[in-house]
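The data are quoted verbatim here:
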Amino acid sequence: MRVDLAGLAVGTELPELVPPPVTRAMLALYAGASGDHNPIHIDSDAAVAAGLEDVIAHGMLSMAFLGRMLTARVPVEDLVSFRVTFRAPTPVHARPRCTARVVSVDPPADGSDGPRTARLDLTVRLEDGPVTVRGEAVVRLRDTGAVPAPPH
């Protein structure tokens, strides 16, 4: 579902993405796809030996969930930047919830008549649990005429 970019304003929240619960099969498939076969993601004994209760999800899997949330709503060519920091592990069986909120709508950095951009705060929080990922994305707003200029 694409977002009406003309309607983005500070405080707007994109529709939440609730991916399926993290499973061992999901982690094995992600390890194969990403090439990240770190044992803490796929081997319970190795995870316990590392001081964990069980395997944990790859941090980049959570980033991938955020990327899916963004590109389902904003054309990928309008994703200017996307970065995250990992705050807490995501255990197997966790239920992540991905959110994005507009924190600024800005004119073109070069002063041109080009499209404005919106800066989004991104969060992955476990259902009934901690924030595991925080991030930021900047998206291009192609329909510049419908987005009011921010106060200066």
User: Anything to note?
Assistant: The beta strands are 79-86, 96-106, 116-126, 131-141.
